[in-house]
Amino acid sequence: MKISARNQFGGRITEIKPGAVNGTVKVDIGNGVIVIASITEEAIADLALGEGDAVTVFIKASDVLIGK
User: Fold this and answer.
1) pLDDT tens for residues 48-61?
2) Phi and psi dihedrals of 56, rounded to 5?
3) Up-side HSE of residue 22: CA atoms within 13 Å toward CB?
4) Other C-beta atoms within 10 Å of 9: how many?
5) How large is the C-alpha radius of gyration of the chain?
6) For an engineered disulfide with 29, which of 11, 47, 55, 62 has Cβ 3.0 to 4.6 Å away?
7) How far apart are CA 51 and CA 22, in angstroms?
8) Which run of H or of E encompasses 41?
9) What are the pLDDT digits (tens) for 19-45?
10) 9, 32, 47, 64 from 14: Cα distances, Å
């Protein structure tokens, strides 16, 4: 698979929280870093995601915001 996102991190799913339309998927990418993605329940089902699955996190954003 080719994809334009340059920020790619391998990891394992640690938790999936279902929602009405979107669920959250927590992925441990190492060194104590957890990335949380909000994706549709349809995508979770289509990808057959489950806790412990090895996945790749792709991050592509035109803006990165930091607040304090």
Assistant:
1) 999 999 999 998 87
2) -115, 130
3) 6
4) 15
5) 13
6) 11
7) 17
8) helix 41-46
9) 999 999 999 999 999 999 999 999 999
10) 15, 12, 16, 25
